[in-house]
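In practice, a research group might receive sequence data for several interacting partners and want a quick structural hypothesis before committing to experiments. The following worked case mirrors that situation: the sequences arrive first, and a predicted assembly follows.
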Amino acid sequence: MSTKQITGAEIFLECLKKEKVDTLFCYPGGVVLKIFDVLYDQKDIRMILPRHEQGGVHMADGYARSTGKVGVALVTSGPGATNVVTALATAYMDSIPIVVFTGQVPTALIGNDAFQEADIVGITRPCTKYNFLVKDVNELAKTVKEAFYLASTGRPGPVLVDLPRDVVTNRAEFHYPDKVEIRSYNPTVTGNKWQIKQAAEAIAKAKKPVAYIGGGVILSNAAPEILEFAEITKIPVTHTLMGIGGFPGTHPLSLGMLGMHGTYYANMAIHNSDLIVAIGARFDDRVTGKVEGFAPEAKIIHIDVDPTSIRKNVRVDIPIVGDVKHVMVDLNKELHHIKEPWEAIRKSWLKQIEAWREERPLTYEYADDVIKPQFVVEKLYEITGGDAIIVTDVGQHQMWAAQYYKFDKPRNWLSSGGLGTMGYGFPAAIGAKVAHPDRNVFSISGDGSIQMNIQELATTVENNIPVKVVILNNRYLGMVRQWQELFYSERYSSVDLGSTPDFVKLAEAYGAVGLRAVKPVEVVPVLKEALKVKRTVFMDFVTARYEKVFPMVPAGAAINEMIFGEEKKKEVKKLKVVK
Amino acid sequence: MKHIISVLVENKFGVLSRVSGLFSGRGFNIETISIGPTLDPTISQMTIETTGDERILEQIIKQLNKLIDVIKVTDLAEKEYVEREMCLIKVNAPTEHRAEALRIADIFRARVVDSTQKTYTFQVTGDEKKLEAFIELLRPIGIKEIVRTGKVAITRE
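A structural hypothesis for the assembly, expressed as tokens:
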């Protein structure tokens, strides 16, 4: 026999090398000891030890979103595995390619309620694109290959591979397959030519078209094609939360975000349009509002790699199944052939949109005596020149970040859109920083969200991964409070975070830097200082407690039924500064 | 509206759970489901009877197709097909009803597969209407237990 037999743990390592994995977010435990022992000797893969498995998988997610590569994590069985469920569901909802390896009790003990046993394949079936239980070391290499292939192709998503202890200790020859053949899995890449032609004609005929782009544009790296598309056809472009950066936010044709906290002009444009070109977006309820009232006049072209997204929530007139980039290349070719005087035929529509833009621009009321959260985001945008990687948690701060930071490039905005996972931001920012050591990575967070994975401060300090954390601290679970104020008669049930810790001291306790701003004049100096420091910084911005996110489409309303918050102005007075 | 969907899947552990999880997770109905091997031992055949309007059915078929282990999905409503279901029915059969029970069984070409002094167990095969009619006629005699296979269906050439 020519090839030598190696252990499953060594095969695992060889597979990661074949996949060119450079970073592994990994937390050890009983059944994966053998793997960690093998990893101890190697130098090819950087191992990052998070302080909680959920944080570790969010890091892999942030790594994946910011690079487009597959993020990889390894955890132990039982609680190690169940701790990653939220992070998997987060990646699943946003179609993020990650591969998570979990340890498992030895195959002979599976089903015996063994120590640290959990049926993680059963538990994660609905929140992974696919998952595997490897039962034989001879299957290991092929399974890993398939896992990476599934995670990164078609509509991407998280894949979990469960590794029983005996599989990683048993021996086999290592053969890494060159190619994957899964007979039941053949995602459509190229769009139907005839449908694309139909779409091009509809775009040329439309009087009031809008392009509505989502996360699929980012995932398929189609931003250049979207820009070309918009500039050929002079079509205004609105984006979802996931589509931020898919089209330059500073471009005159950009309408900003649509939906529940979208701009007035984006929502009005969609509502009044006669053609919507949906590209890599899925008509989520936060986008459509009341479906029956959504864009009543519009024909809909829907381009998506996943056929289930099409006609799931809204009627579609021209469906095109295919990878966004491929379809857009073909569509642009088709559009180049159409000799329309694009400028002229769009003139009155764009004029109307400009009128809406002037009527109700995205705005807030500045205050001298208290920090408005939007002001912090605006200043951050100015100071970073719009060139930082911005990672958010979930809530009001997320919406303000989406509204007031302008993104001209893809993969600079990382946020949990679908699942809305509080606690995502900080670890995801760490993952992004690991992948981009030379770039500025800011995590914008609230005082609620940051406490949901704050233990990762230790990870950044220990591994010297300097992430800059902006905490918009209103001592409230702000978004829930906003809903309670508007829709529950100001009955603030379980939202007051009065005993929020001193984030400055907390950061210092972990060996990071803590800064605080209480007055608006302190905002810029704090941001500048944070930018200068080469360590992880927590910036505690004590902000207006009662500030709300506007515009807002109330739940159950159509997207043209926005409220703007001019009704109440007691916010500033009610503020009490803590500590 | 009722639909019968024929699904070819990889014959692997966990596939049934993926399919049933899809239905429960998305709020689709499974009226009946039956699974068995095909000529190719690596492939299993599922026959799923479900209900829903056109839009729901489109989603069911797309979502099934999206499952990695699903090889082929056929909505039989778009084709000519024959469906069959088998049913085992245990009825009370005291002396005074034995002849009656057998007469009904004879009409439906049901076979007696088990017999005791007080009961008969019939095996009957057919489409849903036939089975329902058979059950209705036996009901006055007294049905003790019914076990049904769920439907299987095959397209016609």
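Before designing any experiment, note the following. The radius of gyration of chain A is 25 Å. The interface with chain B takes residues 121-122, 125-126, 129-130, 133, 150, 182-185, 306-308, 310-312 of chain A (CB under 8 Å).
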